[in-house]
C-alpha cells in the first residue's frame, strides 16, 4: 500500500516537474508579443524542433528554390513570422537580435547564424 | 452507417478541394478567379513562363517597369556601400531590368526596351556555374540558388544579355520573399514568389501602362502571350546563339 502511494506520489511529482519545466521553457521562448505565444508548440513538438529545426529548413530550402513549393509545413519565413516579438511601440524586433529567439541559443552555443545574412529577420518584409 | 456517410462526404470534399488546388496551379486566366494558394507540388515542364515585349509601345523616358521591379524585389533597399565611389556604384548597383536604348544611325529611329534575364532554354549562366547555383527550373525560370552561390561571377561573364548583378556589400533591409545578401549573384526571376503563390503576373507587366509587356505560359496555346507571339512577328535577342530565350521582342 505504502509502495503504491509512493509510486503515485513520484508520478505526480514527475508530471508536475515536467509540466513546470515545460511551461517555464515555453514561457521563455514564446512570451510577450510573438505569435508563438499563443501556441502550445511549433510545427513539431518542442524537443524535435530544438534538435532538428535546421534539418527541416535545409530540406525545405531546396524544395522551395528548385521546385517552387511554398505551402509546406516548414519555412524560414514561418519561423520569423511566428517567433519575432514586437517592441513597446509595436515594431517587430529582429529574431536574431541580442537575446531574441534565434540569438539566445545560437549565441550560447556559439553557432553562427548564416540564415539572416540574406533572409529577412522580421515578419512581412523589411 | 452515419459515420460511413460522413467519411464518404469527407472524401468527396477532400477531392473537391484537391481539384480546386490543381486548378489554381494550372496556368492561365483561371488563376484570377480562384483564391491564390501557395504551391504544394513541384513545378513541372508543362508550363514554360515567357514574355513578349512590344518595343513600339515602350515609351522613351518611361521607367515604370524598372521602378516596379525595384520595389517588388527590394532592389531599392540596397544602399550604396559606405565610401563607395558614385560612378562605380552606378555601374555596379543591382538591377534586374536594364533600360536599353537603340538608335539606328542610318535612319535615326530610336527604340527603347527593357532588358532582363531572358530565361533561356539553354542558359549559358547555368552552363558555366561551378556549383550548380545557376539553374533552370522545370517551368523555364532561370534562377540563382543563393544557398550554394559562391559569388565567382562566371555567370555574369557568360550571360550575353548582361542580365546579372552582384551584391557587393551587406544589405540591411530585405524583403521576406526576396532574400539578398553580400557575395551572391542575382537576376530577374519572373517574380517567382508571385507565381509560386498562385498569381500569374509579374510586377513589370502590371506596372506597364502602355501594355508593352505580355506575360504568360508559352506552352499554353490559349495564353495571351502565345496568342500574341502567333499574331505578331517577334525576335529573340542574339538569336544566333541558339539559346531559345523565354523573352521575345517585337518591333526592333
Name a few traits of the molecule.
heterodimer; A: 126 residues; mainly alpha; 4 helices; B: 252 residues; alpha+beta; Alpha-Beta Plaits; three-stranded mixed beta sheet; two-stranded antiparallel sheet; 9 helices; 9 strands; 15% strand; globular
Summarize the structure.
The complex is a heterodimer of chains A (126) and B (252). Helix content of chain A is 54%, strand content 0%.
Helix percentage range of chain B: 25-40%
Output the radius of gyration of chain B: 20 Å
Q: What's the main sheet of chain A like? A: none
Largest interface: A-B, 21 and 34 residues
Mean pLDDT of chain B: 89
Mean pLDDT rating of chain A = 77
Integer tally of domains of chain B = 1
Instruction: Give the class-level CATH name of chain B.
Output: Alpha Beta
Low-confidence stretches of chain B: 16-26, 28-33
Termini of chain B, distance in Å?
Answer: 70 Å
Which sheet architecture does the biggest sheet of chain B show? 3 strands, mixed
CATH architecture of chain B: 2-Layer Sandwich
- The number of helical segments of chain B is 9
CATH topology of chain B: Alpha-Beta Plaits
Overall SS class of chain A = mainly alpha
Number of strands of chain B: 9
Amino acid at each position: 500500500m505504502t509502495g503504491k502511494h509512493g509510486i503515485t506520489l513520484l508520478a505526480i511529482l514527475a508530471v508536475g516537474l515536467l509540466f513546470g519545466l515545460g511551461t517555464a521553457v515555453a514561457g521563455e521562448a514564446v512570451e510577450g508579443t510573438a505569435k508563438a505565444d499563443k501556441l502550445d508548440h511549433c510545427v513539431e513538438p518542442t524537443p524535435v524542433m530544438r534538435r532538428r529545426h535546421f534539418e527541416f529548413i535545409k530540406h525545405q530550402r531546396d524544395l522551395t528554390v528548385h521546385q517552387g513549393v511554398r505551402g509546406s509545413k516548414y519555412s524560414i519565413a514561418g519561423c520569423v513570422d511566428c517567433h519575432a516579438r514586437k517592441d513597446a511601440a509595436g515594431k517587430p524586433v529582429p529574431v536574431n537580435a541580442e537575446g531574441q529567439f534565434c540569438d539566445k541559443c545560437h549565441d550560447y552555443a556559439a553557432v553562427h547564424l548564416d540564415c539572416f545574412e540574406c533572409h529577412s529577420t522580421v515578419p512581412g518584409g523589411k | 452507417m452515419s459515420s460511413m456517410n460522413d467519411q464518404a462526404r469527407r472524401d468527396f470534399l477532400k477531392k473537391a478541394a484537391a481539384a480546386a488546388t490543381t486548378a489554381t496551379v494550372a496556368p492561365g486566366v483561371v488563376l484570377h478567379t480562384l483564391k491564390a494558394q501557395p504551391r504544394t507540388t513541384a513545378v513541372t515542364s508543362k508550363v514554360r513562363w515567357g514574355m513578349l515585349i512590344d518595343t513600339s509601345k515602350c515609351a522613351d523616358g518611361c521607367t515604370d517597369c524598372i521602378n516596379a521591379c525595384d520595389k517588388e524585389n527590394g532592389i531599392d533597399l540596397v544602399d550604396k556601400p559606405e565610401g563607395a565611389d558614385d560612378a562605380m556604384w552606378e555601374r555596379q548597383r543591382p538591377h534586374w531590368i536594364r533600360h536599353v536604348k537603340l538608335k539606328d544611325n542610318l535612319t535615326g529611329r530610336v527604340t527603347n526596351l527593357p532588358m532582363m534575364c531572358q530565361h533561356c532554354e539553354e542558359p549559358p549562366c547555368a552552363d558555366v556555374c561551378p556549383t550548380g547555383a545557376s539553374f533552370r527550373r522545370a517551368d523555364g525560370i532561370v534562377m540563382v540558388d543563393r544557398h550554394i552561390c559562391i559569388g565567382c561571377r562566371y555567370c555574369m561573364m557568360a550571360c550575353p544579355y548582361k542580365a546579372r548583378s552582384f551584391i557587393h556589400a551587406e544589405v540591411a533591409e530585405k524583403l521576406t520573399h526576396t532574400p539578398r545578401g553580400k557575395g551572391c549573384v542575382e537576376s530577374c526571376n519572373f517574380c517567382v514568389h508571385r507565381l509560386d503563390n498562385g498569381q500569374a503576373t509579374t510586377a513589370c507587366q502590371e506596372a506597364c501602362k502602355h501594355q508593352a509587356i505580355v506575360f504568360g505560359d508559352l506552352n499554353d496555346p490559349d495564353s495571351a502571350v502565345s496568342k500574341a507571339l502567333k499574331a505578331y512577328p517577334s525576335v529573340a535577342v542574339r538569336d544566333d546563339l541558339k539559346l531559345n530565350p523565354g523573352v521575345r521582342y517585337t518591333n526592333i
